[in-house]
Amino acid sequence: MSESAPDLDRLFRQHAGRLVAWLGRVFGAGRLDLAEDVVQDALAEALRAWRWSGVPDRPEAWLAAVARNRAIDRLRREARGLPAPDADVAPPPDIVLPPPLADDTLRLMFVCGHPALGEPVQVTLMLKTVCSFSVEEIAAAFLARPTAIAQRLVRAKARIRALGLPFTVPEPPEMASRLAPVLRALYLLFDAGYRARGGDLLVRDALCEEALRLSELLAAEPRTATPEAHALAALVDLQHARRPARQAEDGTLLTLDRQDRSRWDQAMIARGFHHLEAARRGDRLSAYHLEAGIAAAHAAAPSFEATDWPAIVGWYDALMATAPSPVIAVNRAVAVAMRDGPAAGLALLRPLAADARLGGYTLFHAALGELERRDGRPDAAAAAFQAALALRPNEPERRLLEQRLAGCT
Amino acid sequence: MPKFMLLLHDSPSQARRIAPGDMAKVLGEYRAWSEKLRAAGQYDDGNKLADDAGRIMRPGKDGGISVTDGPFAETKELLGGYYIVVAPDYDAAVEIARGSPHLKYGGRIEVRRVDFT
Questions:
Q1: Domain extents for chain B?
Q2: What is the ipTM of this complex?
Q3: Closest to B48 (Cβ–Cβ): which among A12, A49, A137?
Q4: Does this model's pTM top 0.80?
């Protein structure tokens, strides 16, 4: 009964992903949907049971046992070739499943990275199957429509079945080619956790911690510790280090300028810089290098005022040149505003309103409102804050937006 | 004070539709509701019923008793559990049940007064 909401979130999502990965290994990747199915059964059963009895002492073991039993049921039924009820058949031999392994999660991610699938599909599968994302959450991560994601998933699963993809971890030469979508999925996993959508929570720690754990694993494993993997680990460490300072006592989101920097996790920052150092060994600057560079510039700044904005704008310019996205464009405009003043930022931000993908992106409207306010147009600022509020941000964001909105009148 | 039995009918297939990312929230809502009942002194008893078919007993043809498995299908609605709550009348009992997240998540609640007379 003592489990808190974040603990439970961690359990349902993270552990569910691991169970799917474990069962995926047992059934084979061709039967991913079956693995997902029995885990979903186990979760539903947990939900129905625990609302009466409370959460058992070892919920992970409870879920694993139920998922295991369901899996065995399914295998037995299939072994019997779905007989009619009461058919007189011999019971199948006992089916013994191996115990779950921690690195099954990474294994399954690499399986989902099969080159026959293409990167958006690979990443979508990883998020759905391994990270327990809902279709809506995947759509938000890709700034896409849920229907498009649902179709993508259906086609992907049909293709996996048709190809009979084996559930094996690829050998080093192939592993390298499959690393890119794995890093991408971990990036999106972290991002989804770092800024939780809707609900009461600012951060979904379960998602951030799983992204942290898996990117550290990749950076520690010689076969996968590429400069890019180190760059991602650096990015995750340097951003997550700010976690303790991102919320006021009353729950309001604190933006960088209002954070107490002494509360940043210095050990995590040190680890981030260590990864950044290792990431410099390569001859190519990936998007993770550039974003880690930005996070490092913040981590290194003694105060918000002393931030090296020209350097940060430089990193964003490089990002726009190599991996442009509407979200990067928004962040770049904010950095330019810090370097050159709000009018310069607004000149970049306002034209982005035409981009349909940003219409539902809370931070775009929040940034627009903030720059309009600083540039002396409270009415325009209020309209933008209202647009942000209409998108049903999470509670800490909502509180901040309400404060800003109240400051406009 | 009269007591009422809230019979929570449940559909496992409905529970399967809740995304893993929402489960902690849903469980929290159920817990908050039952804790609220306890705090308000409205809680008397409550238990989950096992997810099996149960047994149905009937008088048999030759004066004996027939015992059969109950009508259970995994995908259909089943009686998931019950609460006994303390309330002055049906309106109040219905009000208590209204606060349960059960209805929001596709369940059905039957409210019956315990007849002491």
A1: 3-113
A2: 0.84
A3: A49
A4: no
